[in-house]
């Protein structure tokens, strides 16, 4: 009897483990001068027991690396493709064939579970550019999935920014979709519900703090304290709970009370702003991951919540229109090395996570300001040029390299431009003001990075197909 119980319990646990109901996901964006090679990323995810990854496109070569790994993959369709996906159903069928169905066969198959259609299409900054195309695109994707016989296994959804809904100052129970997009949000929510697709939302307590100096800082974290928000008989002490429950009420008002909610992005940046540093990121993730692993959920959504952290690595080519912090969301640096202690398995044992292994860098060399260049006003324009084409966000106020001397500032800019140009000799000229050196100019605080060697696999594949092509040409001749 006892043995049978143990057996049943074991089976139950195995089912839980393989179904991945308790594990974390992570976003992996590749807007970097040299994105990490997917083979290193796969290993990193395995080493840190991360079982789900959310991508922002469907790059065939990248997605192929997840075949047979047991890592669940969410593909992304960029906003730029929404018009085509809304107007031309055949395009969508081709996409599903090439970027979904084909992957299910190769080498044990890629475990694709969701397709994220667009990314935060109702962001106010887009001024309504995607309002007409997002819903038809969503419908076309799910229709094509159904037609390919995949509709039960793979679900379409839309990652929404959290300000598609709000509650004014009245607390979560007053939650509703923003009036100007309410109609379309209600239609989308009902469609998702009818097709058993989840509602996906990105939640950023950091941005609330960034946008509003008066935002109570403790409300961004999970340790209580502060006034919180009293809503009838519930007192909310953190923004995560309040935000998710506001959405819950908005969905209830839209007539879809039981739809599954997934948090598509959540995280804390480590540079580019005075509130963005490894210490605060560590505190945020500590609270978040403890909360998630306890499976308590929120007052209105008790239980497990599916979450994708933002983000795996830094991306030095993201737009900085929202702020300098945009390029520093990584739990890991650009090269896959860890920044702060965290327990990604959610078990509460905080330590440095396992970094990417065997990553290949370019030569150990840096581009800096020539010592004999005494008149700095002569290099002002070079500095601006270098920064405009590379990444100087770490020089900004409150950032890791903000305390450099004026000369080192110039060196930092020169080096970023040099590294992001793959260390090309011409990229360290600056009319004679730059020089290449083997001396590491980094300080404890401020890293002068060395660029990664670029995507070996893709180049090898390209080279092989080039050689094969050349060979067949020779044979024909
Ligand atoms: C597959 O995805 C890639 C990358 O997102 C895209 O460039 C390509 O056009 C897609 N293929 C089809 C047939 O849509
Ligand atoms: C430094 O360079 C600027 C701009 O070229 C020039 O106007 C200025 O006279 C120079 N200063 C010295 C001390 O040479
Ligand atoms: C270095 O550059 C940053 C960003 O442009 C600026 O805030 C800082 O004051 C500069 N430092 C010096 C010493 O000029
Ligand atoms: C340069 O120095 C920094 C800080 O000491 C260190 O973290 C980094 O690994 C060094 N870079 C290289 C390429 O050795």
UniProtKB/TrEMBL annotation:
One of its GO terms (cellular component) is side of membrane. SMART domains: X8 (SM00768). Keywords: Cell membrane, Disulfide bond, Glycoprotein, Glycosidase, GPI-anchor, Hydrolase, Lipoprotein, Membrane, Plant defense, Signal. It comes from the Eukaryota. Coiled coil: none annotated. Belongs to the glycosyl hydrolase 17 family. This is glucan endo-1,3-beta-D-glucosidase. It comes from Helianthus annuus.
């Amino acid at each position: 009897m006892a043995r049978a119980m143990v057996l049943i319990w074991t089976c139950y646990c195995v089912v839980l483990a393989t179904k991945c109901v308790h594990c974390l996901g992570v976003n992996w964006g590749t807007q970097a001068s040299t994105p990490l090679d997917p083979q290193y990323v796969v290993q990193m995810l395995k080493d840190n027991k991360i079982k789900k990854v959310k991508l922002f496109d469907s790059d065939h070569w990248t997605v192929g690396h997840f075949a047979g790994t047991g890592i669940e993959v969410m593909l992304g369709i960029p906003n730029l493709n929404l018009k085509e996906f809304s107007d031309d159903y055949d395009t969508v069928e081709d996409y599903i064939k090439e970027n979904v169905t084909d992957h299910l066969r190769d080498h044990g198959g890629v475990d694709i579970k969701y397709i994220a259609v667009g990314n935060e299409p109702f962001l106010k900054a887009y001024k309504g550019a995607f309002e007409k195309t997002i819903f038809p695109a969503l419908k076309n994707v799910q229709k094509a999935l159904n037609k390919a016989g995949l509709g039960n296994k793979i679900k379409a959804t839309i990652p929404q920014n959290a300000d598609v809904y709000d509650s004014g100052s009245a607390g979560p129970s007053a939650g509703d979709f923003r009036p100007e997009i309410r109609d379309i949000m209600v239609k989308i929510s009902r469609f998702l519900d009818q097709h058993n697709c989840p509602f996906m939302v990105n939640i950023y307590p950091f941005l609330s703090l960034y946008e509003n100096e008066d935002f109570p800082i403790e409300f961004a974290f999970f340790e209580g304290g502060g006034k919180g928000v009293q809503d009838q008989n519930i007192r909310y002490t953190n923004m995560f709970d309040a935000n998710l429950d506001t959405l819950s009420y908005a969905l209830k008002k839209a007539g879809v009370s039981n739809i599954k909610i997934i948090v598509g992005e959540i995280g804390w940046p480590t540079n580019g702003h005075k509130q963005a540093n490894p210490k605060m990121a560590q505190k945020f993730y500590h609270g978040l991951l403890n909360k998630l692993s306890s499976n308590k959920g929120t007052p209105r959504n008790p239980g497990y919540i599916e979450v994708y952290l933002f983000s795996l690595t830094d991306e030095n080519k993201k737009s900085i229109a929202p702020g300098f912090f945009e390029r520093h969301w990584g739990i890991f640096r650009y090269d896959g090395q860890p920044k702060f202690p965290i327990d990604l398995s959610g078990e509460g044992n905080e330590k440095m996570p396992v970094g990417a292994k065997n990553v290949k860098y370019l030569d150990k060399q840096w581009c800096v300001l020539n010592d004999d260049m005494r008149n700095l006003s002569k290099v002002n324009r070079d500095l601006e040029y270098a920064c405009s084409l590379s990444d100087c966000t770490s020089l900004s106020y409150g950032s890791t390299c903000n305390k450099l001397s004026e000369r080192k500032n110039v060196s930092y800019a020169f080096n970023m431009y040099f590294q992001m140009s793959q260390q090309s000799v011409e990229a360290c000229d600056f009319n004679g003001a730059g020089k290449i050196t083997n001396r590491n100019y980094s300080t404890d605080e401020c890293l002068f990075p060395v660029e990664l060697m670029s995507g070996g696999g893709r180049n090898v594949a390209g080279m092989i197909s080039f050689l094969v092509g050349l060979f067949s040409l020779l044979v024909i001749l």
